[in-house]
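Note to self: keep these together.
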Amino acid sequence: VELSKMMRHILYDGGKKLIPLTCEVEFLNLYVQLMRLRYTNKVHISVNLPKQLPELKLPPLMLIIFVENAFKHGISPKEEGGVVRSRINPLREKGLLYISVCDNGVGIRPEQLAQLKAALARPGERWEHIGVYNVAARLRLLDKRGRLVIRSHPGRGTAIRMYLPLVELLEEDLDDDTPVDRG
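Structure:
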């Protein structure tokens, strides 16, 4: 059931430029449910949202790419499992939305991290880490202030920080009567 809901999200929302943050978080929760089935108790995830989070919009699949990388490359190689944390905060005074995804996984070796950062600084066609490059490219297209920051320490984990334009839902977006299967 979760997989079919995820596919509907990708097919329905994937063609949109921006979607409500609540939809993205719902999609992330479905993904986490699937990962828990696969990894049982090896993985713990938390998504921290401000209590009074306004209805925000962001490009689809921004969170999932980094959560998936945290599971696949950071946590799954560890026998004891690990934790993935995500925080989302609107930075109103700067007009930006801050998103972080951190894990306590195996981390990225310094030479690999340097290669990744260098490749992110030079946009172009990539066949490795395609999701990360895709997000970085979309951030640049959205706003010149959009950026992706990656920090990692072998044996301690990886932290991804994204800054993207703060876009709030408009009144007409809240009245959208497009049917969406939530069941």
